[in-house]
Amino acid sequence: MALVVSSRKDSFVCCLLFIIVSEASAQYNTVFCDNNKGNHTVNSTYNNNLNTLLSTLSSHTEINYGFYNLSYGENEDKVNAIGLCRGDLKPDECRSCLNDARGNLTQRCPNQKEAIIYYDECLLRYSDRSIFGVMETSPDYVLFNIQNATNVGQFNQVLRNLMRMLTGIAASGDSRRKYAAASATATNIQAIYGLVQCTPDLSQPECKHCLIGAISEIPRCCNGKIGGRVLRPSCNIRYENYPFYDEPTAYAPAPSPSLSL
C-alpha cells in the first residue's frame, strides 16, 4: 500500500523524520523532535529521569486499558510522559508497541526535552512541561493512500457520516478510553473502515473538538482517497478500504491515575 506522509507544521524549527511504511511493517510512521522546547545532555538529571521513566512503562501491568500518564522527577528536571495504544490492542501488545516506541524515540531524539512518535498501534510522547489534560493539535501529520475511490461523491458522503458517528461515540468514553471503530458501505463493493481516538485525559468537549478538527483535514489532504490518517498529539483518525482493527479489548473497571514514580 503506497502512502504519502506530510507535516502541516513545516514552519516549526524541528527535527522531522518519517518512514513510509507498508501495512505489515512494525516501523513507526513519524517522529517529531522539538528543538524549540529545550535540550538536555547525556547524564544530566533530566536525561536520567527520562530514562528511568520510560524504562518503567512495561512494568505497570495494572494498566490494561492502553493509556499511560507518568511523571518522574522534580521542578525543571521533571519528565511527563503519555503513552496511548489503539483501543483494540491487548495489554501485552500495547506494552510491546510502547517499548519499541521508547527505544526509537530516544534514539531519534537524543537531546530534545520534548518529542513524540507515532506508530500504527500506539503513540508515545514526553515533555518537561505538563501535558496531562491539555488538548494539543500540533504537530499534526497526514498520511494517505494514493489510490482514488471509484465513486468519490458517494464515498466522501459515507465517510463523513461514519466519522461523525464515531466521533460522538469516542468523545463519550470514560477516563480510560475514548475510542471508536466501525465500518460502512460506500458502494455495493466498496467498504470503509474507520477509527477515531482521543487521549482519555481530555474532556468530552475537548475530544470532540480535536476529532472534528482532524476530520476537517480530510478534504484538504485525502479527498477521494481510499485511505487516510490524521495524527495529532491528543487525537487521531484513520480510515481504509480494508479492516485494520480488531474488536476493542475489555478492561477491568478501575480509575485512571496519573502515576508518579
Describe the overall structure.
Keywords: Kinase, Receptor, Repeat, Signal, Transferase. Pfam families: Stress-antifung. GO terms for molecular function: kinase activity. This protein has 261 residues and is of the alpha+beta class. 25% of the residues lie in helices and 30% in strands. The protein has two domains: 3-136, 2-Layer Sandwich (Killer Toxin P4, Chain A), CATH 3.30.430; 142-240, Killer Toxin P4, Chain A. The protein has helices spanning 45-55, 91-108, 152-171, 204-215, 218-221, and strands at residues 3-7, 14-18, 30-39, 67-72, 79-85, 112-118, 122-127, 141-145, 178-185, 191-198, 228-231, 235-240, 259-260. A hairpin with a 3-residue loop joins β6 and β7. Mean pLDDT is 87; it is low at 9-25 and 254-261.
Summary keywords:
Killer Toxin P4, Chain A, alpha+beta, 5 helices, repeat, GNK2_sf, 261 residues, disordered C terminus, 25% helix, elongated, six-stranded antiparallel β-sheet, 2 domains, kinase, signal
